[in-house]
Specification:
Largest sheet: 10 strands, mixed
Distance between the termini: 35 Å
Helix content: 40-55%
Radius of gyration: 30 Å
Number of helices: 10
Shape: elongated
Number of strands: 12
Strand content: 15-25%
Length: 396
């Protein structure tokens, strides 16, 4: 067994040391694997970045109260009478001033234009009370001031400024037949809320003809385990007919559909490209075996086994593919890590997010590269194992 192992390592060492003599063939396999891995990681970085931006914004001790069956805030309605009851909801935490941390919110879609492409885009405008900031830590104004009650004033999440045209501090923006002034810019730690505009709740209700209704009420609970008690209280009052879920669960569910869609595009695309890379790897390794027929036969003549010739060829292919996977991973990291993108979220509004490569995504890319190398070396390796010893004694 040790003899076979030593032979395999010897053949692999000879094959790998000969790579500089055939740089074109070696680079073909390496670059094909690198491109496949880079494309796959681009999609996975997009999916993971979007998921982190959306679901990472949720807090387990914030309850999101909506109408039962609503898939998102856009589908929910909470009437004025229901809101009045919810303002006295039990289990809510109080702030330093003794006020319950309860935030009624209205969520509407306004028209915007993408800065890079000039295409129309849906932008969320959230009508809130100032207390909404206390339910979204870490909220902070980085420029300007908070909107004032009763005025057509809005503040914008920082992520929107780089992706939506026309947003600038102090500038007037038109939504329909109404003009709004952007008076502040805020951050929430890179979360999905930075992809929103915020305005005074009563003003947004009036300007968009929503009466006294809202779509969602967020309640900061005394502790996450009070969610079940809150739902029991909601069920006990027939006037409410509302359901609560943790903000973490709600945002994770909103993110999941888009994340799965990105991955469904990414993996098939990478696999189709991998088939092309595999064809290139097979041609490369067959050519390498053909170029070293005499060398392989000579090794067989002095006592090396066919298994050693096969395994040595396999290792050469795996090394090239693994190096390609490493190059593709480094390239994807350099090109995409931290890069800003945008896509539609669960409410069909633009969500601005940063690409993020996780160790699991890099591992998946390397595994795909190794699979290309394994299959690409399998059949050429079998051919190497079957080279007749007599080839070593043929004339040039």
């Amino acid at each position: 067994m040790m003899r076979i192992l030593h032979q395999i390592l010897a053949v692999a060492r000879i094959n790998i040391r000969s790579l500089p003599r055939r740089p074109g063939l070696a680079l073909t396999t390496l670059l094909a694997s690198a491109i496949v891995v880079a494309v796959l990681l681009a999609f996975l970085a997009m999916a993971d970045g979007f998921k982190r931006t959306v679901s990472g914004a949720g807090s387990p001790d914030v309850a999101v109260v909506m109408r039962p069956g609503s898939q998102s805030e856009l589908n929910s309605v909470i009437t004025r009478d229901q809101l009045r009851l919810l303002q006295n909801a039990p289990y809510a935490r109080r702030n330093a001033e003794g006020r319950r941390l309860i935030s009624p919110e209205l969520y509407v879609i306004v028209d915007g234009t993408k800065k890079r492409t000039g295409t129309p885009v849906n932008v969320p405008l959230r009508g809130v009370l100032p207390i909404a900031a206390e339910l979204r830590k870490p909220f902070r104004l980085v420029a300007g001031r908070m909107f004032e009650t009763g005025r057509n004033e809005i503040i914008a999440g920082r992520a929107l400024l780089d992706s939506v045209a026309g947003l600038a501090l102090g500038k007037e923006i038109r939504f329909g037949n109404q003009k709004w002034t952007l008076v502040g810019i805020f951050e929430t730690g890179g979360s999905v809320f930075e992809s929103e505009l915020w305005g005074d709740l009563a003003t947004v209700q009036s300007r968009f003809n929503r009466g006294g209704s809202v779509q969602v009420v967020r309640i900061k609970l005394a502790s996450p385990d009070k969610l079940a008690d809150l739902n029991a209280w909601l069920d006990a009052d027939p006037r409410l007919k509302l359901k609560a879920q943790s903000e973490t669960a709600y945002l994770a569910r909103l993110a999941e559909g888009t994340v799965q869609l990105i991955r469904w595009f990414g993996w098939p695309t990478a696999i189709i490209m991998a088939i092309g890379a595999l064809a290139g790897a097979l041609n490369t390794m067959y050519a390498a075996v053909a170029a070293r027929m005499r060398e392989i036969a000579t090794l067989r003549a002095i006592g090396f086994s066919g298994v050693a010739a096969w395994a040595g060829t396999m290792l050469e292919s795996l090394v090239l593919a693994a190096l390609g996977g490493l190059v593709g991973s480094l390239g994807a990291f350099a090109l995409f890590e931290g890069r800003t993108g945008s896509t539609l979220g669960g409410s069909f509004t633009q969500v601005v997010f940063s690409f993020h490569l996780t160790p699991a995504a890099v591992a998946a890319g390397v595994v795909l590269a190794v699979a290309i190398g394994f299959i690409g070396g399998l059949f050429p390796g079998l051919r190497a194992a079957r080279v007749p010893v007599t080839v070593a004694f043929r004339g040039q």
